Amino acid sequence: MPASNKAGVGRAPVQVIAAACVGSALEWYDFFLYGTAAALVFGELFFPKSDPLVGTLLAFLTFGVGFVVRPLGGILFGIMGDRYGRKPVLVATLLLIGVGTTAIGLLPTYATVGYWAPLMLVALRVVQGLGAGAEYGGAVIYLVENAPPNHRGFWGGFAPLGVSIGNLLAAGAFALVTMLPREDLMSWGWRIPFLASFLLILVGIYVRLKLSETPVFTQAVVERGKIERNPAMAALRKHPRNFLVVLGARMAENGLGYLFPVFGLSYITVTLGVPKSEALSALMLAFVIELFAILGFAALSDRIGRRPVYMFGALSGIALAFPFFWMVGTKEWIWIALAFILARAVVTAGMFGPQAAYFAELFPPQRRFAGFAFARELGSLLAGGPAPFLATSLVAWASGSWWPVACYIIVLSAITALAVWWGPETYEESITVDNTTTAKVGRPVVLAEQT
């Protein structure tokens, strides 16, 4: 029997899905928590000598620092994942980002130690970024390599589902602490969500330590002696087209994935003056609906292919660019909620749902983790990291007008639509062999599988 058909045999699907989804949710709660705090409180706590707009810009700049090191984390842990297995890396990344997040909750602010405060904040953001550089890739690959061949999209969709749950938890945590009196929020309340992550990480470690290695890695890499010295460079050298497809596909998914909830939250509360509680509740509703949309788009990609679903999400980003700001500009909760729902449950979910399986399928098993993580996180550096900072800068440049940000959204979405259109379709291909050779543009050759 081909190795691809053995995936998942002998292990409970619920256990596999829970291990990847729960761990991913807890870890990305930590990472997104920083973005929410940057939008709401970090400007005042760590950069108080600046005016509110400049303070927010500086906070978003430190937010982007985590993305600078994510490609490094992707290379380092990706190589480890392809050489030593998926499980140990999943545990290591969880520990790294968890320690960094908990420590942020213990930091002194600018009022206490001056410029040391933002420096320590940046240092811990680097720690977070290194762990995040391989976390998502590891969770995706673990799911896809355990999935039945005709359900890889649906199984893979539980990894981005975990990311959305983490995003929801982060927004929910800050929604609760913003109910405190402002003095309490700014003195100690903001620390609670960060410190709470310590308990959540313990749960994630317990779940992941119970994992076993994926059958694809064991059968297609270890047993066949396919382990490579530097799988990251091999992925870049032998699969340059697929590497570039991942980069381009990340522009809209990652850029808009952070621009709408992080910059959007800041724009609505700081520029438009909408109460933080109203903006957060609208965003949280969008995250809840997005949970179901991600799985729906992921399952749809198993039927009609990854590319058409992904391109639908990207083209939807172009269509929503201007209407998003028209809706939030009303300052009415129902329209703000609808804007966030369309942004998250249609645009982002349309790309995020099929992305997990698609990116994993673009690389062979012996260099899948490194190729996936390196390409994906390099895309994060180019798209998600600078997005909130650039969007806020564009608003400042345009004297408070939002139209340059709408144009920025259109550019990111167009790049992604073109990249995915250029890329190969993979949903019917094997994930246990090296598809290095291509027969024609857009279609990889599946070499005969060994049994």
Concise synopsis of the structure shown:
The protein is an all-alpha fold. The chain contains 20 helices and two strands.
Shape: globular
CATH topology: Growth Hormone, Chain: A
Mean pLDDT: 82
Main sheet overview: 2 strands, antiparallel
What is the number of helical segments per DSSP (H or I, 4+ residues)? 20
Integer tally of domains:
1
Helix content: over 70%
Beta strand %: under 5%
Order of helices and strands: HHHHHHHHHHHHHHHHHHHHEE
Order of strands, main sheet, comes to: 1-2
CATH class: Mainly Alpha
CATH second-level architecture: Up-down Bundle
Q: How many DSSP-defined strands?
A: 2
In terms of structural class, how would the helical and strand content be classed? Answer: mainly alpha
